[in-house]
Amino acid sequence: MNSTASDDGKQDHLARGILALILATLFFAGQDAITKHLTTSVPVPQLVFVRYLFFALFALIYASRQRPLRQAFQARRPLTQLFRGLLIWAEIGLFAYGLRFLGIAEMHSIFACFPLIITALSVPMLGESVGLRRWLAVSAGFVGTLIIIQPGSGIFSAAALIALACALMFAIYNLVTRKVSRDDSFETSLLYFGVVGFAASLTVVPFYWEPLMPGELIWLLVISATSICGHLLLIKSLQLAPAVILQPFNYFILVWAMIIGYSFYGEVLGTTTLVGAALVVGSGIYIARREYLVARATRRRPRKALYPPEA
């Protein structure tokens, strides 16, 4: 195969990976829209339990197709995996609770700052190096977050702190996932995600369980299906394209959230929120580009400095 054909094949894989991720963000945004609808009548712990029930089954089936389940459950960092599973379980529940008080687009506008938190916390938690330009981008992104939530103003909503807490929890979850991935396989991490969350839900849901109406049950099945489809597409995208290239396209979830929020809930973001969101997203995209350039420079010069001077 000549180099041109090889390059064309690589570009095709990248395009398919990006498309898979964009579709995954559409499923996740749809999932949040249904969650917002259900939180008006279904207790959040019950909603989270049903989601985890189906996701745990999906994780077990997926992992068993890759390797024997006994091997997949053997984590080298079991306590860290347990903490990671509990953290994302709590974040999912808190996010669903926050949707009771905030619009989908508003929730995601604030939540979009999580890549900036990842960059800031990667220094103390993972010992990574972050250059001046990326620190400036992180600062700009946090300014954008402050513009959105407007602390101290008359229109400030305490519910915005829920979205901010979710972003912090999700950022820590990503950093812990990055750490365990050095020793544990993807299948192991997926299993701990699903099984630990399901087990945690089992301890809480009996205190909140209420009879479900037929319509609510259907929506719960739909939300479980969107979660599984979204994760399948996410897995596929990571198989086709590097994470550093895919990262900016995660922000499509904010676009879908705005469209769905307006179409089904009549949500309209104000100018201030849009300006803040643009700062957050722009900073995140810049950081993703810098990480890509750093990773490329590292591959090309493995024996030289890990980061170029301009990082």
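Next protein, fold it too.
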Amino acid sequence: MATVNTEQEKKLGRVRDYLEEEGIDAVLLGRRYNFYWLTGGAANHVVTGTRDGESFLLVTADGVYLLASRVEMPRVTEEEDLRLEYEPVEYDWYAEDLVEIASELGLERDRVRTDTPGTGFDVLPVEFDELRYGFTDEEIPRYRALGEEVTDVFENYCRHEIEPGMTEVEIAANLAPEIRELGVEPTLILVGSDERVLSYRHPIPKDKIVEDYAMVVICAQRGGQFVNMTRTVSFGPVPRDLSERQKVCAEVDAAAIAGTTVGRPVREVLGDMKGVYAENGYPEQWKLHHQGGATGYLEREYVVTPESGQVVKDNQPFAWNPSNEGAKTEDTILVNEDGFSFITEPGESWPVWAVETEYGVVRRPCILRI
């Protein structure tokens, strides 16, 4: 069994502080994102299209239990490195009763909270999610490597493999295996082309043939950590009006990125974005699509609204995504006390605007002419 390392000690410390603050005895964690987070990358799921896993971590003030059926226990214990000291508790798949199991471990039902509805316990409040928001020092190198690898493959694909005459479905289908070869799961690929991208902010790929330009959006995770990017290519000269709208997105995005500082209320960042839209003659565009927010162990840990009460935490990832009638910019950043750094960013061969902000210059992607 693996020895608990520093990353897990920090995370268990956060969970146990939460138990003490809330006056409860245990949390049962079965959602994929919390299992990934607490173990530093171990998977507990079978079906990829659900947030619920098939095994659970039960964390108390002085112990950790791995709860899994006889179907799942062998694979999880033999193939997943949980990086935790834990006691395995196995049950029959046809007789799962997690409340009874907790009782056998000396825990009362009303003293346990869970992230997984339907398990018999009261569900944790959304505030528990905040334990994930600030990355530990040990998580950051994995995150940077993920961002660099995905950026390289994604931009290379957009530059060299998208051609007029392909369908949007083909573009998405051919991109996915290249991302998967990195050991990365693409959880979202959007492709919108020509008039479709003017009409829809979330262009799910269709059998439409690409003619003049295409926008491609990806969200992808490895070990539970997510990165998010958008790039647009044009086959021939970029229409002037589209280029102008892309530049507005770049300026809005740059203001958001530079203004995301530790301790700042996130709704103020959205306020900055609204201001730049308005200064450029597009005061209503922010209402037509969400503008992004915090990322990390979900594509968006939360989307920022004018009423959002969160503040930016140290070592927290964000992905802002301003859009403007066919134009959009999006990359993933990490924010700490020294400012921001890019997790994904336009490569040297991708054209950019160097946008001046009150916090310095921020590079934002142009539409690439192929």
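About the second fold: The longest strand covers residues 213-222.
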